[in-house]
Automatic annotation (TrEMBL):
The protein's name in its UniProt record: Isoprenyl transferase
An example Gene Ontology molecular-function term: ditrans,polycis-polyprenyl diphosphate synthase [(2E,6E)-farnesyl diphosphate specific] activity
Protein family (similarity comment): Belongs to the UPP synthase family.
EC number annotated for this UniProt entry: 2.5.1.-
Residues that, per the record, bind substrate: 37-41, 49, 53, 81-83, 85, 87, 204, 210-212
Xref: PANTHER family: DEHYDRODOLICHYL DIPHOSPHATE SYNTHASE 2, DEHYDRODOLICHYL DIPHOSPHATE SYNTHASE FAMILY MEMBER
UniProt keyword annotation of Magnesium present: yes
GO BP field: polyprenol biosynthetic process
Cofactor(s) needed by this chain: Mg(2+)
Pfam families per the UniProt record, alphabetical: Prenyltransf (PF01255)
Function per UniProt: Catalyzes the condensation of isopentenyl diphosphate (IPP) with allylic pyrophosphates generating different type of terpenoids.
Active site: D36, N84
Upper lineage: Bacteria, Bacillati, Bacillota, Clostridia, Neomoorellales
Gene coding for it: uppS
Length: 258
């Protein structure tokens, strides 16, 4: 049975008619987003930074739903970096509380939508309530397969590579692996995203032209798309623009146009 028919039978017709605009088969499988610009969004309105983070949660809800509607398989969002601990304690605490609140409030909806929640990063350093809510969300959505929502929390691309090296070194010490067997497949498999394909498209709102330590290995051949829109203003319409731009790109992976 064709894939779209299975989908239709299982989930019903697509909610949005707009998806006809996309070229079939040319949507990215994996979209990554650096959710940036919350502070500037708040400052522009004379509000505390935390208000920007709170508004950013609404963008995440909207974008998750759009990804489900449009058949994106994986959405990885950068929510807290290993460097974000440098911020005032009050802001860090507010971000952690928002994470807990988001997971508690959204879990029923995420389950209903068929979203599988995952997380990447040094999760053991997160406050206990955040770890507990994450564990619950992961457990209760493990069987879902419509969209993988991958939350990058206390995530750093360099920390991830260090952790991968440690993992591989332990395997070598245990005699399970010889140094000459270490290749790109082994290294990729040792990353937090080991079983996921690399992102096809990276979106950075708020106009910054940098990676800020996000998915350093995985973004090697990812298409980049930057917008000046701050994350709390980013909605499915902005995602649509990014997806349409992606469809115009020619991905060569170092080869020649065919
Ligand atoms: C992104 O928004 C959220 C996190 C980093 C957690 P920012 O807080 O970085 O917003 P700006 O960049 O200061 O505008
Ligand atoms: C990247 O944004 C991290 C997240 C969005 C979670 P930052 O605001 O921390 O990045 P820099 O400091 O501007 O590079
Ligand atoms: Mg920022």
């Amino acid at each position: 049975m064709p894939g779209f028919l299975t989908r239709w039978l299982r989930h019903g017709p697509p909610r949005a008619t707009e998806d006809r605009e996309f070229e079939p088969g040319k949507l990215p499988r994996h979209v990554a987003i650096i959710m940036d610009g919350n502070g500037r969004w708040a400052r522009k309105r004379g509000l505390p930074r935390v208000a920007g983070h709170r508004a950013g949660v609404e963008s995440l809800r909207d974008i998750v739903r759009a990804c489900v509607d449009w058949g994106i398989a994986i959405l990885t969002v950068y929510a807290f970096s290993t460097e974000n601990w440098k911020r005032p304690q009050e802001e860090v605490e507010a971000l952690m509380n928002l994470l807990v609140e988001y997971l508690r409030r959204e879990l029923p909806e995420l389950k209903k939508e068929g979203v599988q929640v995952r997380a990447i990063g040094r999760l053991e350093a997160l406050p206990l309530p955040a770890q507990q809510e994450l564990a619950r969300a992961r457990r209760e959505t493990a069987g879902n397969n419509r969209l993988i929502l991958n939350l990058a929390l206390n995530y750093g691309g360099r920390a991830e590579l260090v952790d991968a090296c440690r993992h591989i070194a332990r395997e070598v010490l245990a005699g399970k692996l010889r140094p000459e067997d270490i290749d790109e497949t082994v290294l990729k498999g040792a990353l937090y995203t080991g079983d996921l394909p690399d992102p096809d498209l990276l979106i950075r709102p708020s106009g910054e032209m940098r990676l800020s330590n996000f998915l350093l290995w995985q973004l090697a051949y990812t298409e980049l798309w930057v917008t000046d829109v701050y994350w709390p203003d980013f909605r499915r319409e902005n995602l649509r623009q990014a997806l349409l731009a992606y469809q115009q790109r020619e991905r060569r992976f170092g080869g020649l146009k065919i």
